[in-house]
Specification:
Length: 79
Amino acid sequence: MAQTVRIDEGTHALLRELADADKVSLSEELTLAVQARRKERFFAELHAGYAQMTEAEQAEEIAEKALWDNAIGDGLRDE
């Protein structure tokens, strides 16, 4: 179900410019913008979480990643 969202004229003009450049509808461009913002927030929160880790927690994380990196060399052929 479609919903109406009110935006100011400047934002509408920017949205139209982006949509025209991407050759998509305003709705599709708005969806892309919201998805990009969601991804941006996710990674900002992720980085903030890593920044709060203690040195011991960071070392544990690095060690765990190294174990998973070794799993790639399991000797199985690519299918």
